[in-house]
Amino acid sequence: MTSQIIKSKSIGFASLFVALLGLTACQPDEVTNGNGLSDPNVDASFTVEAVSGEPNRFVLDANRDNVLKSLWNTGDGFYAGSFTEEIFLPDAGEYTITHQAYGRGGIINESSQDVTVATSDPVAGNLIKGGTFENQADHDEWSILQISDSGTYWTFNEGSATIVGGDNNQQGLFQSVVVEANKTYTIDMKVFGSGATETWFEVYVSPTPPVQNQDYSADGTRIALNTWAGCGNNAFDGKLSKISCAGSGNSMSFEQSGTVYVVIKSGGKNLGSTGISVSNVEFRGSAN
What we know:
CATH class of the largest domain: Mainly Beta
Strand content: over 45%
Number of domains: 2
Low-confidence stretches: 1-35
Distance between the termini: 89 Å
InterPro entries: PKD_dom_sf
Number of helices: 3
Helix content: 10-25%
Protein name: PKD domain-containing protein
CATH topology of the largest domain: Jelly Rolls
Oligomer: single chain
């Protein structure tokens, strides 16, 4: 009798095992539209609403249904944000705002809207000239700072400036701006590249003028890529203030009104197969 009970249980377990195998065999090997694990139709739509009385501020409100994460791009690369995001667009012009919605199974959809800003903010308007490097007129706003004899150099493109080379040489770009005493300013820019080795990319803002054929380090680095410190080693694309892993920070003030110099210098062993590019350089007073 005992042996029959054991045999019966063995048969039951075997049947259950076969049944489970059958169920497993029916499961698809890849994520598809029909298994409920992914959402190919995740909705990336969003609305844009101007803030009353603030012509340079807008509220972005994304659809939340089945959206696990929102990324936003206002022109300087994607960043992780909230479903409701307030943005500040201090300069007059046309902007394309893009929202990426992450759904189940890692599905990503995106949508874009154009926003027109009629006037620049009187306080936080960009003091940099030619910061987008769009054309020859923009390029002419910048001066080359020769530091090393050769091996590393800046090139101007339509929409960016790129520094290429290596062999532990370096070169800089600079221009001057006029500031007011005891007012807070911020410096930032978009940077992108394929990843570098033993390389630095540094931004300075100082009343000390650069001198040709001399290195520049006046008042210390503000924001920087530094492969020894852990940024710039792999491919990157975004705001330098968010990628930076070195420097004192991108906000500053000055004891006296007058001229200061924005200096961008880079160099190192290998700046990567595409070099390091910069665009959308901004130097602004604090927004109201």
